[in-house]
Q: What sequence folds into this?
């Protein structure tokens, strides 16, 4: 009889504990994401907002560049990759991509630089090393400091194809691993120039008017500023489970409203 009473009491205790432990703690889920530093800030905003709605789901977001996004998904290091470029021919094209937003790319200079306008042709000449002094484009007699991205960057791939016509950036270009690092380099160097996602333009750098059009999200959304590219989430095959639900929310009206604050809807 005592044994039966003890067993009943033990089972009752387990029942009470089960009722008191939050459901989130009993069924916590983590989604890992890496890749494009263009997509990274948006993905972090989505992660925070999604966690408020689903406290049992934690989304961890890291950068590294679009190339990292592709390889991390392929190797199973993350659940979702981020890319600001199209997949290359070969194994990259076998991954499933979902367009989650769009983004504009621009060149940016230090706010103390008096040069505010450049043509696309001038930008190409600057970054391929044909123009090396600001006086050649109507500015002061000062050498141009080039700031760009590494080869793993989707922003570099887009800039190379769209602004440089497929030509490589000059060997004099100081290469950085993220949009944020390029922005910081331009912000601390008076006569530097770099290329970044328009979402990264703030008071520390100035987007250069290109062919008479200011690189703003409003101009990009209206079609006046043409240098816009799609942004992708990558999965190894069609997304499933928690990843599928998260991606679906990101491309829903709620997720796209967040994207529209600094990026463009997909």
A:
């Amino acid at each position: 009889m005592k044994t039966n009473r003890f067993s009943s009491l033990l089972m009752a205790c387990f029942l009470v504990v089960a009722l008191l432990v939050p459901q989130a703690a009993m069924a916590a889920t983590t989604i890992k994401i890496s890749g494009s530093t263009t997509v990274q800030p948006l993905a972090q905003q989505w992660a925070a907002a999604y966690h408020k709605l689903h406290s049992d789901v934690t989304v961890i977001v890291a950068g590294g560049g679009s190339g990292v996004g592709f390889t991390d998904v392929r190797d199973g290091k993350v659940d979702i990759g981020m890319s600001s470029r199209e997949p290359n021919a070969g194994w990259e094209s076998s991954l499933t991509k979902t367009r989650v937003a769009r983004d504009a790319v621009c060149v940016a200079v230090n706010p103390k630089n008096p040069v505010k306008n450049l043509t696309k042709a001038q930008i190409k000449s600057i970054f391929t090393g044909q123009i090396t002094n600001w006086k050649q484009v109507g500015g002061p007699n000062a050498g141009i400091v080039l700031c760009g991205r590494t080869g793993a960057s989707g922003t570099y791939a887009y800039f190379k194809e769209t602004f440089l016509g497929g030509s490589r950036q000059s060997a004099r270009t100081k290469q950085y691993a993220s949009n944020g690092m390029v922005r910081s380099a331009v912000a601390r160097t008076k006569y530097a120039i770099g290329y970044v996602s328009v979402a990264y333009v703030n008071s520390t750098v100035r987007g250069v008017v290109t062919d008479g059009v200011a690189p703003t999200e409003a101009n990009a959304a209206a079609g006046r500023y043409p240098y816009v590219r799609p942004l992708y989430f990558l999965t190894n095959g069609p997304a499933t489970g928690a990843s599928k639900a998260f991606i679906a929310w990101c491309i829903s009206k709620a997720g796209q409203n967040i994207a529209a604050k600094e990026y463009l809807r997909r």
